[in-house]
Amino acid sequence: MPKVSEVCRHVRSKNAGPFWITVDLSFPDRESFERYAGAQALQPAAIGTLFDVDGSQVKCFQIADLSVVKISYPRRRPQGGALERDMHGGQQYIRLLDVELD
Length: 102
Known about the structure:
With 102 residues, this protein is of the alpha+beta class. The chain has helices spanning 4-7, 30-36, 44-51; strands at residues 10-15, 20-26, 59-63, 68-74. The protein has one domain.
């Protein structure tokens, strides 16, 4: 099975406020988007397990016109907190790169 890093053109993460992170998965074309955007590994429960958050709070948006999947999930620690280690959320996407898409 192909991995996210093999299928997506761009994968990035960023802040979505002090309590949320958003990850964007950009697919290279409509065909790839249609094939993989609904993959089980990109569903809220799987994302919750991957990022150690409650899957019921994970939000996934498929934007077909842009061939993009946006995934938002709550931070485990608020931005800027004493134990928070990625102030801008820019390193969170790395966990997704080796996820296999079915």
